[in-house]
Amino acid sequence: VPRPRNAFMLFRSAFAAAQKIGTNIERDNRHITRIIAHCWNRLSDSEKQVWHNKAATEKAMHAMKYPNYRFHPIVRAQKPAKR
């Protein structure tokens, strides 16, 4: 069961879907996330509140759909290899 998305993940999805950063500018998702994070940090609290409200709505829908859901992180025995 996937976890419900937080406010930043919703913002990032909408930002990427709007294609404000073209593939001819940047193709690496790590850099795209950094650019979007910079835009997120520049938003005012009232603009961020819209995304927090959407995240709360998604969390409530997730709770209704999966009432017994509880996040259990997987503990890895070894650290993943660096690229």
Can you characterise this structure?
This protein has one domain. It is built from 3 helices and no strands. The chain has helices at residues 7-17, 29-42, 45-65. The longest helix is centred in the middle third of the chain and has 21 residues, at 45-65. It starts with 6 loop residues before the first helix and ends in an 18-residue tail after the last helix.
Give average pLDDT, whole number. Answer: 88
Radius of gyration: 16 Å
Shape: flat
Largest sheet: none
Number of strands: 0
Strand content: under 5%
Helical/strand content category: mainly alpha
Tally the structural domains.
1
**CA(first)-CA(last) distance:** 28 Å
Low-confidence stretches: none
The secondary-structure element order is HHH
Helical content (DSSP H or I, runs of 4+): 55-70%
Number of helices: 3
Pfam family, one: HMG_box
GO molecular function: DNA-binding transcription factor activity, RNA polymerase II-specific; RNA polymerase II cis-regulatory region sequence-specific DNA binding
DNA-binding region: 1-70
Domain HMG box: 1-70
